[in-house]
Each structure stands twice: as structure tokens, then as C-alpha cells.
Amino acid sequence: MQDYTLKEMMAVVAAREIHNGDIIFCGTGISMLAAMAAKNISAPDCVIFFETGAIDSLLEEVPLAVADSRVMYRTALNGGLAEAFGTMQNRFTGKRVVGILGAAQIDRFGNLNSTVLGDYDHPAVRFSGSGGANDVASFVSRTIIFMKHEKRKFVRQLDYLTSPGWLDGPDGRKNAGLSGGGPSAVITDMAVMRFDEQSREMFLAECYPGISVESVQENMGFAVDCSRAVEAQPPTGRELEILRNRCDPQRLILG
Q1: 252 located within any domain
Q2: Are 53 and 88 in contact (CB under 8 A)?
Q3: CATH number for the domain that contains residue 132
Q4: In this predicted model, what pLDDT tens digit does every residue of 196-206 receive, in sequence order?
Q5: Is 150 a catalytic residue?
Q6: Contacts 24+ apart (CB under 8 A), 87-96
Q7: How many domains, in total, are found in the chain?
Q8: Exposure of 237 by Cβ count < 10 A (0-12 exposed, 13-18 middle, 19+ buried)?
Q9: Is 144 a domain residue?
Q10: 255 falls within a domain
Q11: For residue 55, how far is the Cα from the chain centroid?
Q12: In the prediction, which pLDDT does 51 show?
């Protein structure tokens, strides 16, 4: 019987995607927890920054929003939106920035919709929109995407393109004049998806322990290559101890 939750699994898996020297642009919730876990577990020299302009803050507690005063605690710099988005587009720092995003829909090339469900003028649901996600997806060196693993979210055709992934394939970003970056991993509550180096299409890379390849595929609206799928490494005792007791001891995000 596993001694961790799927949310803990997602946070640890995402943290493993972050390396020393990376500059992490993240929002609130599980993306922030993943960045904090990386900083405390495997990438102590990564730098976390927020769209509000707080850069390299000392995150002793989990902030509940990017405007939470705890985000500004003992920062290297408290700037603003211009500094935050300038960091992404700077030709030196931009190459090291990793963005963590989420969305309502994703397609096989990692393009994201966080704007509307249904017709744009008469939507079934309207969301808050890009909120800077398009800038992140367009300019940073790579993105990590969190998604709930549901068929309604993994769709053949987006209702609206908010943030670019690999667009329509290998040359999609180049043809659109975007940077060479793009989505590197999609982390869900069932699996980890990655993108083929040649076709840029999504494939199943890892299933979480106890979750079958078939169940992952059944919960998607399009077929993916599952031939490379392996079982994901569960969180270690040390990773769980740090995640629970140092990153989120009040379980504000872990629940």
C-alpha cells in the first residue's frame, strides 16, 4: 500500500524536472510547492521568481497567492511585472527560465487553452484567460505543465488556443517566430507525458505505480504512443519528509 498521495507524487515528479541553475517561473498551488520541493531536495541553486516581480525569495512558508507578502520575504529583488516578464525575454536569463503552467485543455502538441470552453462569443465556460501564460509559453526555454488526467482536458482540438506548445509539429514554433523552447513534460495525477524529439507529439513516458497504461489512455481524448512507458519512481522517504515537514507543514496545498 502506497504511503503517499497523488498530489505528493505530482509535486515530487515535477521537482525532479528542475535542475540547479534553472530559474523557475511559477504561480501558486502545486506549481509553487513543486518549485519549493526542488529547492529543498535536489536543486538548491535554482531561483524561484513570480510574476509580481519577487525574485529568489526565502520561502519559509507556502504563500497562498503571488501577491502574498510571504512571496516578498528576503528576496534578492522586489520588482514588478516588467522585471518579471523582462527576465523571461532577456537573451541571457531567458535561456534558463523554466515555466510551470496549467490549463483547462491540452492537445497532442502541448498547446493550451485557459480562455473558454465552447464558442468564444458564446462560451459554455469562460476562464480568466492567459494571465501571462502566453508570454511564458512563448519565451521561456521549456515549460512543465500540470493537468488533471481527464478525457475532457486532453482533447483532439482546443476550443481556443491561449498558449503555444509545439503548435502543429516540429517547425511550428520556428514558423511562428517563437523561441526554441516548448513544453517538456505534462504531469498529471496518473502519469508523466513527454514530447517526441522528431514529431513533437505527446507520448506516455511514465505511469504512476498501480496505474495501468490502459487506464491512462482511456482518460485521454486522443491516442498517444505508449510503447516507451515505464513505471514512475515513487517518492522516497527523504523526499516525502522534506515535502511534508519543510515545504508544506500546514498542508495548505497537500491537503
Answers
A1: no
A2: no
A3: 3.40.1080.10
A4: 999 999 999 99
A5: no
A6: 87/23, 87/25, 87/49, 87/55, 88/25, 88/135, 88/136, 88/139, 88/140, 89/135, 89/139, 93/23, 94/139, 94/140, 94/141, 94/179, 95/141, 96/21, 96/22, 96/23, 96/141
A7: 1
A8: exposed
A9: yes
A10: no
A11: 19
A12: 84
Residue with cell 502541448: 110
Name the 3-class secondary structure at 158: coil
List pLDDT tens digits, range 103-158: 999 999 999 999 999 999 999 999 988 888 999 999 999 999 999 999 999 999 99
| Closest by CA position to 103, among listed 200, 45, 27 | 27
Residue 248 — very low, low, confident or very high, per pLDDT cuts 50/70/90? very high
Domain that holds residue 190: 4-245
- Residues 6 or more apart whose Cβ sits within 8 Å of residue 187: 10, 13, 14, 17, 144, 145, 146, 147
Confidence of residue 68 (pLDDT cuts 50, 70, 90): confident
Q: Are strands 112-113 and 47-49 parallel, antiparallel or unpaired?
A: unpaired
**Pairwise CA distance, residues 63 & 193, whole Å:** 28
Residue in the structure block whose three cell numbers are 523561441? 179
| Catalytic residue chosen out of the listed positions 51, 60, 150, 201 | 51
Cα 75 to Cα 58, 69, 136: the distances in Å are: 6, 11, 21
In a domain? residue 250 = no
Nearest to 182 by CA among 34, 174, 190: 174
